[in-house]
Amino acid sequence: MDLDTFVRALPKAELHLHIEGTLEPELMFALAARNRIALPWKSVEETRAAYAFSDLQSFLDLYYAGAAALCHEQDFFELAMAYFARAHADGVVHAELFFDPQTHTARGVAFETVLDGLERACRAAQARYGISSRLILCFLRHLSEDEGFAALEAAQPHLARLHGVGLDSSEKGHPPAKFVRLFARCRELGLHLVAHAGEEGPPAYIVEALELLGVERIDHGVRAAEDPALLARLAREQVPLTVCPLSNVKLRVFPNLAAHNLKALLDAGLKVTINSDDPAYFGGYIAQNYIDTAEALGLSRGELKRIARNSLEAAFVTEAERAPWLRRLATLPD
Ligand code: HPA
Ligand code: ZN
């Protein structure tokens, strides 16, 4: 079996995926025309050419500009269906989708419009592809905690339709400590908790996310490697890290894939997963992330299976949902 076939055959969960980051320029332009929204680019080609990033912020500026094309329930539905088709082709059996409601409500798009469209796509993906999914509301950390509380208030009537909350956007200067009260409230509401930490921010932000916010997984977390005590703790506690290798290279967290520390984290015993983050912007969906990383770092089939197993074990699902995926994974060769 060649690597591509093997990777696509691995039953895997995608746990770090911003649905707004799956907006391909073709759909962006189609939606912008339909909604009479002006984009900062003249064409699909010019848009793709603009995707040369120097850091997280240079990406976020374009990502928020592109998201302006999304206005109606049907737009969010089409966006997520395009993702699920790709995910299915990549062997994803379960996806936990991040969405950024504040990006949309700030433009006058109702929280319900976003949620209704995404949820309809989640149901359709289950029916069409057998993919299960969850929705995780991400708070924008460059905004205030009070603005986060306002987003939570808009979500409150729909809590049963959400599985968790996360924290994304500009990391540097916006430590997890800024959101202690908000995450405490979300915990009381029974939501799962995750946060981006240690992508561009220091290892101390990972410690804060664990200790002050009480998160169950760390999104990215690659800068943990700079703190041996933290590394040992993450291994001991088996805290899942949702690593996104192609994203890390595009945003210059690492100069190239061969320099990525994913294998070192795996060798140190951490519960590492591979995910695509914002695949429309970073040049590859989840299977491409597995393949390119395996080639660059020399990951074995056994290591790829372990990464896929980690993703299934770290998913916010019941044991009854997880068991058949794990059984199927175990049938693949090492
Ligand atoms: N980091 C922070 N915020 C984000 C990202 C990311 O990788 N993608 C979308 N929002
Ligand atoms: Zn992310």
Which structural category do the helix and sheet elements fall into? alpha/beta
Helix content: 40-55%
Mean pLDDT comes to: 98
Q: CATH superfamily membership, which one?
A: Metal-dependent hydrolases
What profile does the largest beta sheet have?
Answer: 8 strands, parallel
Total number of strands: 8
Distinct small-molecule ligands in the complex: hypoxanthine, zinc ion
Count of the separate structural domains: 1
- Euclidean distance between termini CA atoms: 11 Å
Radius of gyration: 19 Å
Overall geometry comes to globular
CATH architecture: Alpha-Beta Barrel
Q: How would you spell out the order of helices and strands?
A: HEHHHHEHHEHEHEHEHEHHEHHHH
Please work out how many helical segments DSSP would assign: 17
Main-sheet strand order equals 1-2-3-4-5-6-7-8
CATH level-1 class? Alpha Beta
Binding site for Zn(2+): 16, 18, 196, 277
Domain Adenosine deaminase: 11-327
Binding site for substrate: 278
Pfam families: A_deaminase (PF00962)
